[in-house]
Amino acid sequence: LVGFDAFEKVIDTLGGVEVTLTEEEAIYLQTHNYISNPAYRNVVAGKQIFNGNQTLGYCRVRYVPNINGTANDFGRTERQRIVLTKIFEKYKDNNILSLLSIFNDCLPRVETDISKQDIQDLLANVVENKITNMESFRIPVSGSFDDEAKVGGSYVILVLNWQDNIDQLHEKIFGPKE
Asked: In angstroms, rounded to a whole number, what is the distance separating the alpha carbons of residues 92 and 113?
């Protein structure tokens, strides 16, 4: 668990995150209070390094499509996955000592039930096994739901094809059926 303030501080500790904005995202972030500090609303379309306050604002947007054309809550969670991937890409080639230093700077801002030692062991495992690629996966999968359904005046996600979700998740975890 990471609160808003801690999230900003972690991103700042990491030296920021590279983000690529569309024109629509840039205008939205310039004109709304998702970036809570008005001094940091100077974002532009294209690639740039965001500080913690800017990154938090970017991760919270759901009312305009992201760079992949995804809007609503799925666009917001996709932005969050984009940020996590960018952080991974930035640090994936660091040595274990460098990563442990970063880890020790960031861990006090994170609430978790995983022990510090277990996280250090996992980090060492990633480095030892040269894991340099990270994938993400969203449920419900595209094409299997209706996100325009309403219940009591509120939008809800209506999953239309549970089996497709089950099959794709199974394949993601265990690989293709033989």
From this structure: 24
